[in-house]
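Hi team,

As requested, here is the filled-out complex form for the S-adenosylmethionine run. I kept the field names the same as last time so the parser does not choke. Let me know if anything looks off before we queue the next batch.

— J.
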Amino acid sequence: MVYLNVSMPRTNRLTTQNLPTQLLQMATGFRTTQALYVVAKLRIADLIVNGPKACDELAQKTGAHPDSLFRVMRALASLGVFTQDSENRFGLTPLGSLLVTDAPDSIRAAIVFYGQEFYTAAGGLLQTVMTGETAFNRMFGKGHWEYLSEHPDSNEIFNLTMAQSINASPARRSIEKYDFSDRQTVVDVGGGKGTLIASILNKNPHLTGILCDLPAALETAPEYLKSCGLEERVKILAGSAFESIPSGGDVYVMSRVLHDYQDDKALILLKNCRQVIPSSGVLLIADWVLPEDSSPSQGKLVDLTMLLMTGGRERIESEWKALLNRGGFALKRADVQEALVVAEPFFEPTL
Ligand SMILES: C[S@@+](CC[C@H](N)C(=O)[O-])C[C@H]1O[C@@H](n2cnc3c(N)ncnc32)[C@H](O)[C@@H]1O
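And here is what came back:
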């Protein structure tokens, strides 16, 4: 899962100055996670989109405790999320603008997502490390997908997070760059509301598409695809890819789906795809390809999200190759920078 393309430091070697401060900054990330969560949840940015406002007014509009909200706003202003003037009015900075609900580049949903169930699950990392058990399942008594199907508010936030975060993901850019000119039908497996398939079809007017996912993930797909003018070109199919994957495509896309699962389950998805993909078909997997050395990679942190939330994992190239082979695919390309794996089905020669 996710997911935002936060830029990483260019080196993972810390300077020799202020080492305790640097480490404490890492260790106290909980404060910024929750401060951002509070302002995102209360939609503070929406209230100051037309100009700065005093904290008392913001507190009154959101039902918050004025002094506590002021302290959160002051802390975030010190980090560059808001402006703060001499009369303690708070306004938006370019960073804070990303919290505005309807901004085209909004990441408000992601910030709410990270502050809620994810935050609770993250508190179980030690237990996960000691037992291997997925923290989310222990904390919430069920798996992430089942939980979302029963909690509409969280489901909405999660689906929005996916739709927003894919815009910033390197995988989207690399899939969009793929040459679809001799292809006809794209099947996006676990494609959520359809952000990726819509962008592929918009750039390639000759293509048609099939969007499939669990029912809860598809709730806003018909409306979204209609708003893109694609309702005639994309068929929407609800169901679990563990049961079957729709036939009829010559390009299969799995974006941030296989990393949600350990190899045994990912293998079922690959085998189901292998059953329906034609021999000339191609499978595009938008997931991290982790560097094998200690170089910085956002994927190594996203891997912890998988460990906590779904029990899945990110993979290095050799792991992709082995997994794909077991599923009946040959690895054609695994790109660390582009976070893209390209695979083709192989067929045993008949004697
Ligand atoms: C991390 S999200 C990625 C969504 C989208 N592909 C993207 O990149 O933005 C994983 C998606 O896989 C879907 N998914 C998980 N298990 C699935 C299953 N058994 N069958 C179909 N889709 C599944 C989820 O509902 C969710 O939409």
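Two things worth flagging: The radius of gyration is 22 Å. Residues 1-11 have pLDDT under 50 and may be disordered.

Thanks,
J.
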